[in-house]
Amino acid sequence: KVIITYIPSDTIELGSQFPEFTVTIYNIAAERVRVLNTEPDEIDRYSRRAFWNLKNDKGDEVVSGTYLYIIETHGDKVERNKGRMTVIR
């Protein structure tokens, strides 16, 4: 299980706000692997964390490799953060 934490760019402005957000995960070939958007199983907006069970949208386990992710907030202030992670099995 992987935990991805959303850290807003302006923590003072968003300090007491907990916007809804989604995390989209891509493989290194930029193919979409998984979208995390279900509360509370995949998204906990109050702790600003997303939980990925290392499975793709079809339910198959992903292989070792580098994965890219985009975190997008929804609501009054829309923000997009991105990052990468490596899965080693």
Automatic annotation (TrEMBL):
<protein>
    <recommendedName>
        <fullName>FlgD Ig-like domain-containing protein</fullName>
    </recommendedName>
</protein>
